[in-house]
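Run log // design_07
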């Protein structure tokens, strides 16, 4: 997965700061981190795999015509940078049903060292290295759609972004499809 991510990144993203961003990613846990604590991609490497799945869904969508390959790669591959250095491995005791003995089992736990929001944090991290267009920034900011905490709190700003920029809708749908269709199938298949 890591090599595929880097290949697509290097082939598609050429704007100033791209190599510095990739170098920074290599120094983080991005390629080893889970995508969540217990839902989709809750395993080592799940974040990289999820990012690739979202990129594939976004770049394969017929409605995204008119966007550059670079925009699709930036949004698909980098939308969840907020999860870099976000999880830690802990252990809990679980009773083994076969032996009746308690065993330590590893699990992922959130350890947010920079509580800045989900999409907002991803935009901020990307912008430390390369410039985003307004539509790219909005798409990454609002990729969680109705799952975003501000939307759950009553904000209508996300729907305003969806009305203004089609890429916001496309990235959100690609994220949903990757999470609930592609990765759910993997989970059912016993990944």
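design_07 sequence
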């Amino acid at each position: 997965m890591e090599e595929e991510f880097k290949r697509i990144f290097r082939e598609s993203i050429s704007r100033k700061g791209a190599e510095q961003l990739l170098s920074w990613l290599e120094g983080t846990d991005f390629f080893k981190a889970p995508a969540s604590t217990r839902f989709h991609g809750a395993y080592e490497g799940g974040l990289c795999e999820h990012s690739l799945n979202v990129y594939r869904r976004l770049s394969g969508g017929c409605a995204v015509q008119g966007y550059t390959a670079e925009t699709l790669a930036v949004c698909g591959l980098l939308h969840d940078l907020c999860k870099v250095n976000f999880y830690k491995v802990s252990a809990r005791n679980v009773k083994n049903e076969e032996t009746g003995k308690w065993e330590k089992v590893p699990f992922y736990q959130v350890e947010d060292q920079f509580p800045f929001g989900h999409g907002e944090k991803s935009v901020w991290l990307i912008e430390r290295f390369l410039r985003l267009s307004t539509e790219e920034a909005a798409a990454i900011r609002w990729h969680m759609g109705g799952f975003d905490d501000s939307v759950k709190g009553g904000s209508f700003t996300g729907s305003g972004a969806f009305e203004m920029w089609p890429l916001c809708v496309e990235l959100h749908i690609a994220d949903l499809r990757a999470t609930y269709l592609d990765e759910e199938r993997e989970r059912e298949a016993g990944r």
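The beta strands are 87-95, 102-110.
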